[in-house]
Amino acid sequence: MFDPQELEQVPTGTALSALPTDQLATVQRGLAWLAYPISLVDGLYGPNTRSAFSEFQNAIEDPDPSVVSDTSIAKLIAGARETGRIIAQSVDTEDETKVVIAELCRHMGLTLDAQVAYVWATTLWETAHTFKPVREGLDNSDEWRRQHLATYYPYYGRGYVQLTWQRNYDKYGRILKIDLVENPDLALNADVSLFVLVHGFETGAFTGRSLAQYVNEGQTDFKNARRCINGLDRWPEIKEIAEGYLAEM
How many CA atoms lie within 13 A of 40 on its CB side? Predict the structure, then answer.
């Protein structure tokens, strides 16, 4: 798993574009751990990385959006450490899991109660009401998955939300600095699954649509929020669950 202290090896006072590949990948990973929209941790400098770093620099009020400063590194380390602290907490019970999800949502930018309520509702639905990371197909055998999920086997859905397809396992493996392609079952670990759940909702990593597009200060569209995960599949049920959670907050 990524250790935020690795960011200390990045030289400050250096233009982001001038960093060696391994050090730029470390910065990309740090940005991703704060839910800045890095499309792929690859150590390559391009418009996506430039934009994400500039957005980060603006948020911390660093005057130069192109140079890695001492402030940049300190803020990245602090933010990534906080992400790590949150996902390492106990999630043995449903109540504990909801608390941790809410804390991670607010840390990553999903600060509204309605946004948290929708992430809770999705988690409940996607885990078959268990609030535990699960495999697609639930209690079916691996042979069943091999036959029925052949299009993307062995990269079938796992987690609090169903992480699917090799490209997505690769994407999150790079961010978390673990080998999810070689060991896809790592996606069932609570810390990994928590990160994927909230990061995906915040950045739109699953379908290209983020939760804030549908649930924000101006609207609470629990119907179309389902598009962040899986089209409009079962949106009425999930909407009803989210409304119930929101009413209790």
Answer: 9
On average, the pLDDT of the chain sits at 96
* CATH level 3 topology of 4-85: Muramoyl-pentapeptide Carboxypeptidase; domain 1 (1.10.101)
Residue 242: the pLDDT is: 98
CATH 3.40.50.1820 fits 90-248, yes or no: no
For 191-215, how does the pLDDT look when each residue is reduced to its tens digit (9 = 90+)? 999 999 999 999 999 999 999 999 9
Q: How far apart are CA 104 and CA 73, in angstroms?
A: 21
Query: Using omega within 30 degrees of 0 as the cis cutoff, is the peptide bond preceding 154 cis?
Result: yes
Burial 57-74 (b: 16+ CB within 10 A, else e): beeeebeeeebbbeebbe
User: 101 and 123 in contact (C-beta within 8 Å)?
Assistant: yes
Closest CA to 169 of 151, 190, 187, 195: 187
Coil/strand/helix, residue 36: coil
**pLDDT recorded at residue 139:** 86
| Cα–Cα separations (whole angstroms), residue 35 to 76, 80, 172 | 11, 10, 12
Delimiting residues of CATH 1.10.530.10 domain(s) in the chain: 90-248
Question: Could you report how far apart the first and last alpha carbons of the chain are, in Å?
Answer: 33
- Amino acid occupying residue 133: P
- From-to residues of CATH 1.10.101.10 in the chain: 4-85
User: Tens of pLDDT along 111-141?
Assistant: 999 999 999 999 999 999 999 999 999 889 9
Q: Look at residue 174 in the predicted model and tell me its pLDDT.
A: 98
